[in-house]
Amino acid sequence: MKKGLMAMVKENLESRKLSQDFEEKVRNAIKQAKKAQSQRDYNEVIIHCDEALDTLMKLPDSMEHKGMKKEVLLLKGDAIFRRDSKEKAIKYYEEVLELEKEIGDKFSQAYAIKQVAWQYECVGNIEKALKHYNQALSNVY
């Protein structure tokens, strides 16, 4: 029984260390993505964001990790918006909105809804844009 308990403790400690390593890898990828964004190298932003998203999939689904994922999705959405297509970027902003709903911060949800609205406005879908702008306002007031 003692050996079994010791094995569980060792496994738990190794698992925490692995999570910390993965978290550090995500933070580094975010840092590199932001650096590439400041240099307007959107291909590089997307590469670092994909690296971060792949690593985040290996971590438990905690609020901290959802916050990291939200940050990565915003960076990737912005890069795709600037590099490729406004239509493709909407997907990432909508994912951010879903994460904000899970996190539960009403102000951040309103900001995410506004970002989605702005994307729809940019692609000329005024009806969806107005729907989201109104939703953002109702979240704040």
Give a concise summary.
With 141 residues, the protein is mostly helical. 87% of the residues lie in helices and 0% in strands.
Defining traits:
mainly alpha; Methane Monooxygenase Hydroxylase, Chain G, domain 1
If you had to describe this structure to a student in words, what would you say it looks like?
It is a single chain. The chain has 141 residues and is mainly α. The chain folds into two domains: 1-84, Methane Monooxygenase Hydroxylase, Chain G, domain 1 (Up-down Bundle), CATH 1.20.58; 86-141, no CATH class. The chain has helices at 2-38, 42-56, 63-83, 86-103, 106-122, 126-140. The longest helix is centred in the first third of the chain and has 37 residues, at 2-38.
CATH topology of the largest domain: Methane Monooxygenase Hydroxylase, Chain G, domain 1
CATH architecture annotation of the largest domain: Up-down Bundle
What proportion of the residues is helical, as a percent range? over 70%
Straight-line distance between termini:
58 Å
